[in-house]
Design brief:
By secondary structure, the chain is of the alpha/beta class. About 40% of the residues lie in helices and about 10% in strands. It has a domain of about 240 residues: Amidase signature (AS) domain (Amidase signature (AS) enzymes). The protein has an eleven-stranded mixed sheet, sandwiched between helices. Strand 10 and strand 11 form a beta hairpin. It starts with a helix and ends with a helix.
Length: about 475
């Protein structure tokens, strides 16, 4: 299958037809979408019109942009004007936004062709895409296994060849964890480097949009397109996104790499840690200095996250009241209508997190729970900062295991939450991290290795990822 870099180069040079490229990918959707269910909504007609328009522009001598003709799948929590955006929730079923997310506008302006909206855990709350109101997504490598979550549809779409790139959102690992389980590249950039305007909010201080792709170079290209300041997002950092693509071949000679000790012990499968060790050996062979490093506060990440994220979700999801958006269940009074709407519209996991967050923010408990979680968050950031004084990048597993069977963890929320134990600390710190496929586990399923970097350290992070990609055996 062609990469996004190859497709864009071919379309821009007039050597490939954007419409023919689109048809190739839609043919794969026809063959496997029924068993995988990567999409909630396909935009085939609009995609064909867009691809036809691109071919006309190229024929007229125009350059449509760096992603010319590249099919892209969009997580169904990214607003798209005129196209349903459901967050895989009944409460937003059929809702059509009046505007388009900044990242989607930038993709289209760069010549990309959106092909549909992908399935996710409802409101991005989950680690397996089993919490979708519209049914689960299945892992293309083994359809009896989960694809990870919450961006499982976006990861599966790339792994199945439905699109060379896709977008997801990452609040506690929702790009990196499914990327690992589906054997693709997944990137969470530094908080604030990619606009959140048009992303339906879960945890506003944690959410960040990023790409899935088959290659590191494709992920770099997409980030360069969607990144950079957006005046419409108050959390957007000033300046443009760094040009990471031009540094992909710089190698790791002289770089200092730290293996995070706390992410290599209890709870991490032996076949996963073995692949991380192999990745570390590959970096050492390429000229990096590799040592163990303790980032002690990451052990508190899960506890802090499941106070901070639900608290923010409790606030953000209060807007879904049956009055302004989506589904409305009629009742005798306004209060009864809101209760009936939320009871029918929200799934069990969303209700669980709203109640947890509301409790953590309530009078008498704020300081004991939410306030303390914020202090732990600061501690995590400080411990990472101390580690980055000694090391350029850090290395860890992305997910504790390979893809697990459907239903394996649904009865025990804590068992499900532990799937994000390696990814959550980075969200709390606001730093960038990415998952790179690095071989398979004992069951033959993909293993992802996580590369972590300090804030705005995307260039060195991608340099490291490129070496890993070229070293996998």
């Amino acid at each position: 299958m062609r990469t996004a870099v190859d497709i864009a180069a071919g379309v821009r040079a007039g050597e490939l037809s954007a419409l023919e490229v689109l048809d190739e990918h839609l043919e794969r959707v026809v063959l496997r979408e029924a068993e995988i269910h990567a999409f909630n909504h396909l935009t085939e007609e609009a995609a064909r019109a867009a691809a036809t328009g691109l071919d006309r522009r190229v024929a007229a001598g125009e350059d449509p942009g760096p992603l010319a003709g590249v099919p892209v799948a969009l997580k169904d929590n990214l607003c798209t004007e005129g196209v349903p955006t459901t967050c895989s929730s009944r409460i937003l079923e059929g809702w059509i936004p009046p505007y388009t997310a900044t990242v989607v506008e930038r993709l289209v302006a760069a010549g990309a062709v959106p092909v549909g909206k992908t399935n996710l855990d409802e409101f991005a709350m989950g680690s397996s895409t089993e919490n979708s109101a519209f049914g689960p997504t299945r892992n293309p490598h083994d359809v009896t296994r989960v694809p990870g979550g919450s961006s499982g549809g976006s990861a599966a779409a790339v792994a199945a060849g439905f699109a060379p790139v896709s977008l997801g959102s990452d609040t506690g690992g929702s790009i990196r964890q499914p990327a690992a389980l589906c054997g693709v590249v997944g990137v969470k950039p530094t908080y604030g480097t990619v606009s959140r305007l048009g992303l339906v909010a879960f945890g506003s201080s944690l959410d960040q949009i990023g790409p899935f792709s088959a290659t590191v170079a494709d992920a770099a290209l997409v980030l360069e397109v969607i990144g950079g300041h957006d005046p419409g997002d108050s959390t957007s950092l000033p300046g443009s996104f760094p040009s990471v693509s031009e540094h992909l071949d710089d190698g790791v000679s002289g770089l200092r790499v730290g293996i995070v000790t706390e992410m290599m012990g209890d709870g991490i499968a032996a076949d996963v840690t073995a692949r991380v060790r192999a990745a570390a050996d590959a970096l050492a062979a390429a000229g990096a200095t590799v040592e163990e490093v303790s980032v002690r506060a990451v052990t508190y990440g899960l506890s802090a996250y499941y106070l901070v994220a639900p608290a923010e979700a409790s606030s953000n999801l209060a807007r879904y009241d049956g009055v302004r958006y989506g589904v409305r269940v009629e009742a005798a009074t306004a209060g009864e209508m809101m209760e009936a709407t939320r009871t029918a519209g929200f799934g069990d996991e969303v209700k669980r997190r709203i109640m947890l967050g509301t409790y953590a923010l309530s009078a008498g408990y704020y300081d004991a729970f939410y306030g303390k979680a914020l202090k732990v968050r600061t501690l995590i950031r400080r411990d990472f900062d101390a580690a980055y004084e000694r090391f350029d990048v850090l290395l860890s597993p992305t997910s504790p295991t390979t893809a697990f069977p459907f239903g394996d963890k649904t009865a025990d929320p804590m068992a499900m939450y532990l799937n994000d134990v390696c990814t959550i600390p980075t969200n709390l710190a606001g730093h960038p991290a990415m998952s790179v496929p690095f071989g398979v586990g004992d069951d033959g399923l993909p293993v992802g290795v996580q590369v972590l970097a300090p804030a705005l350290g995307e260039v060195v992070m991608f340099r490291t990822a490129a070496v890993l990609e070229g070293s996998v055996r």
